[in-house]
Amino acid sequence: MPPIFSGHPTMLEENDWRNAAHSTGTSIMAAEFAGGVIIGADSRTTTGAYIANRVSDKLTRITDHIYCCRSGSAADTQAIADIVSYHLNFHGMELGEEPLVEVGAAIFRELCYNYRDSLMAGILVAGWDKKKGGQIYSVPIGGMCVRQPVSIGGSGSSYVYGYVDANFKPNMSKDECIQFVTNTLALAMSRDGSSGGVIRLGIITEKGVERRVILGDQLPKFYED
Amino acid sequence: MSTERYSFSLTTFSPSGKLVQIEYALAAVAAGAPSVGIKASNGVVIATENKHKSILYDEHSVHKVEMITNHIGMIYSGMGPDYRLLVKQARKMAQQYYLVYHEPIPTVQLVQRVAAVMQEYTQSGGVRPFGVSLLICGWDSDRPYLFQCDPSGAYFAWKATAMGKNYINGKTFLEKRYSEDLELDDAVHTAILTLKESFEGQMTADNIEVGICDASGFRRLEPSHVKDYLANIP
């Protein structure tokens, strides 16, 4: 829609950061370990080149044992997460027990696939249930759904596929896995301009979720000349 | 073949100004299994008889005491199938509220919404009123709530009440036994005693259901827990 006042586009420039959509150009990941899953994300939300929030929380609670990592449009992923919460809470209430991670992922997929033309959302669904233990389901843009023992997403993920392939091992201990996730995200954040800030972690096991933050000065350092 | 609804309501006024269908619905409720609710100083208890007509019934598979949200529970007297529908709708409404307001639905809000549904069925084409009265208990804003919803859509806030068979005797019993500083434990005890007044036969942990709601939320009591309470009853 063109500006209402005269043809001088000084105030309503369309491609300006002031009017750009909030995106979570991001680095997110999830990895299975012995006893559960660990999810991690950076904390940068951008509108164009402006960092709108440098401490955002991209790890969103769906239930006590199911979380999602959000990448893509911040608005789209927040709205989807809220709707999935609605459906999963209702489902859990009818079942009388904790809903399964697979079910949560299926609901995410239903929304992301059926509204694929209107959404820009890449989501990692991760959690723990008593049927299959720790699980990760990747629901990228387009709305497919696939279970993976380790999964990365967001704009920063492109830079760390090699590192993940070389360093992931199944059945790591909790601390090994924390180090692996931290290193991966730190590498992605240092190469991707749309990722940065702090590393937020979530450790999901039978007992629930433990949240951690790794602040800027504590990030692992790699080769820098 | 889709159901072709009547456009006119089946619930119509009698010359004396009564809605006879609602009166009949209330009669269905009064003929139903007894249920009881008591508000204590630190929580609410709801309880109902859940007798099976034959030993072949699989006990504990289907429940009368139902959770609507973490902090709200419900029971009924009257027609089971009608109740199930309202439970489902109440659960949906609670989730819809959370989606919009990001706040667990206050008990009063849920009661108003459920009651609005029940009223709809007294003023819509081709449907009959619900043959249930509901007892809805909840905890929010640091205090307990107990409400009754009638087939007419009317709702009442109670300190203690009884519904279903013998409800008049039940209420009289409660009037004598109720006090403002009742604790939840004592309230459960009193609720079970009230049910006993109209109980035919031996009361066991398998033929009654009890739910409690306090600051830590709503839960249905396990049969083993109910047994402990029954042990203290003469």
Automatic annotation (TrEMBL), chain A:
Q: Does the keyword Nucleus apply?
A: yes
Please write the reaction equations for the catalytic activity of this protein: Cleavage of peptide bonds with very broad specificity
Database matches in InterPro entries: Ntn_hydrolases_N, Pept_T1A_subB, Proteasome_sua/b, Proteasome_suB-type
A Pfam family in this protein? Proteasome
Q: Which residues form the active site?
A: 26
The species this protein belongs to is Exocentrus adspersus
EC class, as a word, reads hydrolase
The record's subcellular location field reads:
Nucleus
What are the GO cellular component annotations?
cytoplasm; nucleus; proteasome core complex, beta-subunit complex
EC number of this enzyme:
3.4.25.1
* GO biological process terms on file: proteolysis involved in protein catabolic process
Major location (coarse): nucleus
Assembly and partners are described as: The 26S proteasome consists of a 20S proteasome core and two 19S regulatory subunits. The 20S proteasome core is composed of 28 subunits that are arranged in four stacked rings, resulting in a barrel-shaped structure. The two end rings are each formed by seven alpha subunits, and the two central rings are each formed by seven beta subunits. The catalytic chamber with the active sites is on the inside of the barrel.
Gene Ontology molecular function? threonine-type endopeptidase activity
What is the protein's given name?
Answer: proteasome endopeptidase complex
Biological classification of the source: Eukaryota, Metazoa, Ecdysozoa, Arthropoda, Hexapoda
Q: What does the UniProt keyword field contain?
A: Cytoplasm, Hydrolase, Nucleus, Protease, Proteasome, Threonine protease, Zymogen
Automatic annotation (TrEMBL), chain B:
What is the role of the protein in this entry?
Answer: The proteasome is a multicatalytic proteinase complex which is characterized by its ability to cleave peptides with Arg, Phe, Tyr, Leu, and Glu adjacent to the leaving group at neutral or slightly basic pH. The proteasome has an ATP-dependent proteolytic activity.
Q: What is the lineage of its organism?
A: Eukaryota, Metazoa, Ecdysozoa, Arthropoda, Hexapoda
Q: Where in the cell is it found?
A: Cytoplasm; Nucleus
PROSITE patterns, A to Z: PROTEASOME_ALPHA_1 (PS00388), PROTEASOME_ALPHA_2 (PS51475)
GO terms for biological process, alphabetical:
ubiquitin-dependent protein catabolic process
Q: Which family does it belong to?
A: Belongs to the peptidase T1A family.
Q: Which organism is it from?
A: Exocentrus adspersus
Q: Does Acetylation appear among the keywords?
A: no
Q: Which GO terms describe its cellular component?
A: cytoplasm; nucleus; proteasome core complex, alpha-subunit complex
CDD domains named among the record's database cross-references: proteasome_alpha_type_2
Assembly, in brief, is: The 20S proteasome core is composed of 28 subunits that are arranged in four stacked rings, resulting in a barrel-shaped structure. The two end rings are each formed by seven alpha subunits, and the two central rings are each formed by seven beta subunits.
Q: Which residues form the Proteasome alpha-type subunits domain?
A: 6-28
* Full protein name: Proteasome subunit alpha type
- Taxonomically, the superkingdom here is Eukaryota
